[in-house]
Write a structure and sequence with these properties.
Layout lengths: L3 H8 L8 E6 L4 H33 L1 H13 L11 H37 L2 E6 L2
Antiparallel strand pairs: 1-2
């Protein structure tokens, strides 16, 4: 089986002092991929919660929420206000729900990708990776 990587390796076979190794990735451990994706999802969840909090602080500091509250009061005769629905506890609760859903989705997607890669390796032969020591 002659691939582009094989041809490039033969062309660049000049005298180098560094040792070159070509390895083929033929298996991704399922549980390792799940654990790694879970840790990445935790980082994304923390970033999501912090992002929601900072956006709320910016909107509150600029007075945009108060202006939108006045806008909604003009339509609803003052009975429904935006501040009832957009307070810090509500925003943080929504951010937590989004973060938990992202955590679940990212972890499951990582598991699915690892499984699909392990199935695709049987057809394609794996990913050829070249390493060198300098």
């Amino acid at each position: 089986m002659s691939t582009v990587a094989d041809k490039l390796a033969r062309k660049s076979s000049t005298n180098t002092s560094a040792k070159q190794v070509r390895l083929r990735l033929v298996y991704v451990d399922f549980w390792s991929a799940v654990k790694l994706c879970f840790l990445a999802a935790v980082a994304v969840a923390i970033a999501t919660i912090v992002m929601f909090f900072l956006i709320y602080l910016v909107l509150q500091g600029t007075g945009l929420i108060a202006k939108m509250d006045d806008f909604f009061k003009s339509f609803s005769d003052g009975s429904v206000t935006l501040s009832q629905f957009v307070g810090l506890p509500q925003v943080m609760a929504f951010a937590s729900i989004v973060a938990i859903l992202n955590l679940i989705v990212i972890t499951v997607m990582g598991a699915i990708v690892a499984g699909i890669y392990n199935l695709a390796v049987k057809i394609t032969g794996g990913l050829l990776v070249g390493f060198t020591s300098n």
